Amino acid sequence: MNKQINIKKLKDKYETAGLSLKSDESFLALDGYIKNDSFDYDLYIKRQIAVNKHKLNQSGPMIGNQENGFMVQFAKHNTNPIKFGICHGTRRGNEQVSMGERFNIETIGTEISDNALQFPRTIQWDFHDIKEEWIDNTSIIYTNSFDHAFDPIYALGNWMRCIHKTGFIIMRAFNKDYTPTSPKYTKSWDEWTSGELYGVSGYKLADMHGFTAESVVKMVVHNHTQGVIDINEWTISYAPEAIILWRGKEEDLKLDWESYYDKFQ
Fold first, then answer.
1. pTM given for the model
2. What is the total count of domains within the chain?
3. Are 174 and 165 in contact (CB under 8 A)?
4. CATH of the domain at 129
5. Taking 60 as the threshold, does the pLDDT of residue 205 lie above it?
């Protein structure tokens, strides 16, 4: 694989988006991949492969194991049709297998490691990039590997381009202690970007492996200003340990974490 990354342009993009590359808000470990003032993409791949093989005996998350699990019910209440799913950074492929079985749909997983094809429903792929047939044709995108992106703004913008109307992206977080405690989990874009409500500013609503909720919102806003997506078509929502981007109006959201908890817990 070969990819030319202009470090200055990349850093300038994050400054324009209002994101510090290394802070409590977001963390991009670019320094480890810079050689002679250029981004060493081959080294990035080698390190991703090394991490993959180091963790290969660890089973990945099982999606939709329970019929009344939040992700299953969120999709059933809010997404129509449910026809195709993608899981990014999947290692052993557990995510896409369980998603496909639960919803009875075609699913694939992307994995950059050279052992990708050893695992079910997996392609060897850099998740920053997308295929033409995924665009506006994907019901669900799931990942717990967002922290592996060297350019998360670009990756997230591309993922959002894939989602059809009423579909959603769910980004798993590690630390449930950083998820919202307020009973209201869905806010408007203006409220989230104000940086004043629910401790968004300076406090991690969801520990996105180094990305806060506020930084994810800034990435979406930047993609909107660049014409990649239309922010007015999207709602941001939350569940314990997860950030959800749903392609639909907030008033049309039939099930969020609050209503799910009241109904199923």
1. 0.85
2. 1
3. no
4. 3.40.50.150
5. no
